[in-house]
Amino acid sequence: MNLQKLMAQQTSLRDVPAVAAGSSVAGARTTATLGPDTVTVESCFRIASLTKVFTSTALLRTLRDRSVPLDTPVVELLPGLAPDWRADRSITVEQILSQVAGLRESVDGATASALGDGDGALLEAARLVVRAGNEREPGRQWSYYNGNYFLAGSVLAALNGTTYESALEGNLLGPWGFARTGFDNPATSDTVTGWSGTTRLPPLGYPRARRPSGGLWSSVSDLLAVGEGLLGDRALLVEIRRPRTRPDDPMSYGLGWALGPSGQMYLNGRLPGYRAAMVLIPDRDYVSVALANQDTALPALARLLSDMQRPLTGDDMAKPVEDFAA
């Protein structure tokens, strides 16, 4: 596979200031960059909803380390929210990670952002989520809602007795050596500026209450490494890739990942000025990722990742990767 050639064939990427992509097959990596802005596979982009990969992986590792079953009701792990809990008390950790908890989707980004940046902001966002109750019975229907991950991040923090950020660092980012991944704006030389059309966007923070669902900066090299780490932990991967959705749901979904027709795991992320997408094929020991700093880049990134994996599966994954609900 000539990745540089595949990137050049995506004509709509020619107007994107910076694109970085890579794949890993059994640990052997191929990477490439494109665009007038000088970037490398170590350069840091906003990865938006790809953050959920880190949140779910860290939480699953913590649950395993503490012998906490996936079917544990969330209210048992967040007892401080019990007085305000109007949601179904049977909702489990498995259901929030797989977006089938049936929660009423009433807590949007602006509401969560208004909670400020104190250590308690995330738990207060989780409180608002469960106070709103349920829209439907848990497990009945898949629906993508960041409030599920406000709860997941709160559970991760509670089980580790610290903040969500410290728990993520101590359980995953540090042990797995992700030096280029974090919530703080990286050094200027490492940061890729986002663009919306022809408008260069100023660097913006990401509210603490929303971080488990989409707050990280990361690089192609670190995202390939998290994929490689998952491929190396087969027991964890078995849980992640098992579908938790019903046949009439809009997509097949595991724990934090959409599931493709040939065993692919995939998702995308979108924030103003940034687009990101990722594909794993566990049975082929394969992971790929593509990052860009332009609002319009997602269709081309999806096509690129589809073309990269197509020799292995025969599947056209461009539309599923693009249409993923992030």
From TrEMBL:
Residues 18-297 form the Beta-lactamase-related domain. The keyword Hydrolase applies. It comes from Streptomyces mauvecolor. Keywords: Hydrolase. The lineage of its organism: Bacteria, Bacillati, Actinomycetota, Actinomycetes, Kitasatosporales. PANTHER family: BETA-LACTAMASE-RELATED DOMAIN-CONTAINING PROTEIN, D-ALANYL-D-ALANINE-CARBOXYPEPTIDASE/ENDOPEPTIDASE AMPH. GO terms for molecular function: hydrolase activity. Its EC number is 3.-.-.-. This is Serine hydrolase domain-containing protein. It comes from the Bacteria. InterPro entries: AmpC-like, Beta-lactam-related, Beta-lactam/transpept-like.
